Amino acid sequence: MAEMTYRDAVARGIAQEMERDPSVVLVGEDVGSAGGVFKATVGVFDRFGPDRVVDTPISEQAILGAAMGAAMTGLRPIAEIMFSDFFAVCWDIVANEIAKTRYMTNGQVSLPLVIRSANGGGARFGAQHSQSVENWAMAIPGLKVVAPSTPRDVVGLLAAAVRDPDPVLFFEQKSLYPAKGDVPEGEIVDELGTAVVRRHGKDATVVALAAMVPRALEAADRLAGEGVEVTVIDLRSLVPLDVTTVATSVTETGHLVTVEENPRLCGWGAEVASIVAEERLFDLDGPIVRVTTPHVPLPAADALEDAAMPTVARIVEGVRRSLQ
Amino acid sequence: MTELQDQRGRGGPASAARGIGTAPVGAAPIEVRTSIYKMMVEMRDFEKRAYDLFLQGLVKGTSHLGLGQEAVAAGFAAAMRPSDYTFATYRGHNHTLARGAPMAAVMAELMGRQAGLMAGKGGSMHLTSVAHRMMGSYAIVGAHLTIANGAAWSAKLRGTGEVAVCFFGDGTTNIGAFHEALNLAAIWKLPVVFVCENNRWMEYTPISSVTAVAHPAADRARSYGLDPVLVDGNDADATYAAASVALERARAGAGPTLVEAETYRHGGHSRADPGKYRPEAEVQAWLARDPIPLYRARLAESGVDESVLRRIEEAAQSAVDAASAEAAASPPPDFSLVEADVWADGGSSWRR
Ligand SMILES: Cc1ncc(C[n+]2csc(CCOP(=O)(O)OP(=O)(O)O)c2C)c(N)n1
Ligand 1 test: best mutation among B93, B197, B203, B210, most atoms within 8 Å of CB? Predict the structure, then answer.
């Protein structure tokens, strides 16, 4: 067991898969000898060389088109979109091409590819470099959507994404890059679509993703001080969505709170809430509460950004509201 | 403006590829040329029938016909190896047939039937037959140039000698993806051939009125370190020759080629559009340069017997008749297909 940052876990996960399978390639802006603008691919170029680790021009459509064409002809590309906000300039390739091709061709074409991207706020980068866009991807049939919260999960879920026969969008939360955690030695391969219960309590179910998981855990600590015991579920993947783990917990606690970094409307928590309302309504003993960023672009100033994103205090307050 | 290697109107295949940068290629063997003629006649008959069936309400939705542009699809397909990849647009019926996809399956796809190439799940604009290396027809202008690059990149990494050939219209040269794709192909020296079928019109707007240069593809080639290549897209010998040179260059590791083939669509943009916005004199001038009678006369001059040509024409008619009947006899797709094949496991489940 070694302690490792979330950022180093990305490089380790990529290297693990490139070592195992010669058809895995890495492509994106500055991913090569520069090691990535977030230093999340350091060492990969030195180890696997310029044929398999390829720097590109600032051409997001060309990057993802290359990944798609390579995936349909025998490679398993890992493409990087530097900031997830930049999906907006290549969304055609993601939403119209990659997501739909297997279906439109009646299963003729497989696209085993991963698109990694630095996602989310907390770095004071302002409205065009801070968005949480997992829900953009979640709305498109044909895309799997993963967002790990710990270094160990980065390695295991990245491996699962690379080995998956379908396209996976892999969101790395940029404020978590320096976060440390224990990562076991040896090969780690996780399973997509499996949530993890990070803390167990009988009073309420708090469901969170990526950077909101450590905040939810902190909120749980505080609530425990008041005698309220909450379960914290790390969703880890939005598609496939582990409904079973969430629903089972709601049946036990009778209360559901989602903690989402995205702006309010159509965030992933709305889907989770609607499923629980449809399937577990009579197990609920209070309103479902969604704690989200308000429906605004993220401001740049640290004080404003901190006020916009869900805080520990707002999560605590959300749980109390659900319990009233 | 850059000096173009103008290959138009020089007739013979020996001259057609002049100036592309390698030794001029000789005329294709006569069997290849008769096979090109056969392909063109089949495409023409197929497209006319597709139009009739559209007017009868049997072909639904939309379709974009390649009538008049057959010499591009046939010339290139004849020069390609079976292992090469085709990427086409929504105007892709010709390109799909040219790679050998069964005519009945293509017609059934247009008609939304179970026997369709994709069992009706893609439709006219997304014809795909991976078994024939027809890697898809793409309906968002420009996207597939970037995807063709990926197939070429993969071929290069895997060392297979395969080439990706990507067809698109003149209007496509003004979207960002075109420029991203050309630059990437050039810097990575990819085995890819980009073929602009310049039919002078986007949908209803003439390309010249919205483009900063006279030759929308060829005049952009230099920006990507490529030699401009302009070819008579209504002369199948010329397209075959240009294709042979470009494919050879790609296989030799010398990188991409951007070909502009000048041609014309005989009909409107799509569906039942009569194309009335085009000046009558322009339409007439291009109809007089219809690639099929031109090629027929050329083959006859080269000694191909009239009876051989007539047999090709009769066989094409029978093939289209049989394909249309087979397609019409197919039932609609099974409803289970609605929720099939979103994922590799064959299903569409998003939850666990
Ligand atoms: C990105 C995008 N913009 C607009 C359209 C609508 N559209 C479909 S075909 C077409 C004209 C394309 O012209 P061209 O590239 O010359 O091809 P052609 O139809 O002549 O073969 C347009 C504007 C589209 N499909 N995709």
Answer: B203
Hey, what CATH class is A2-183 in? alpha beta
A196-323: CATH topology is Rossmann fold (3.40.50)
The pLDDT assigned to B13 comes to 33
Instruction: List the single residue in A106, A107, A239 with the smallest CB-CB distance to B350.
Output: A239
User: A277-294: per-residue pLDDT in tens?
Assistant: 999 999 999 999 999 999
CA–CA distance, B208 with B185 (Å, rounded to integer): 26
H-only helix segments in chain B: 13-16, 30-55, 70-79, 93-98, 103-110, 143-158, 176-187, 236-251, 280-287, 291-301, 306-329
Q: What is the pLDDT of residue B20?
A: 35
Ligand 1 centroid to Cα of residue B65, in Å, is: 13
- Under CATH, domain B47-324 is a member of which superfamily? Thiamin diphosphate (ThDP)-binding fold, Pyr/PP domains (3.40.50.970)
CB contacts < 8 A, A to B, total: 163
ipTM rounded to 2 decimals? 0.97
Q: Which residue is associated with the tokens 């072909």?
A: B59
Cross-chain residue pair B184–A71, CB shorter than 8 Å: no
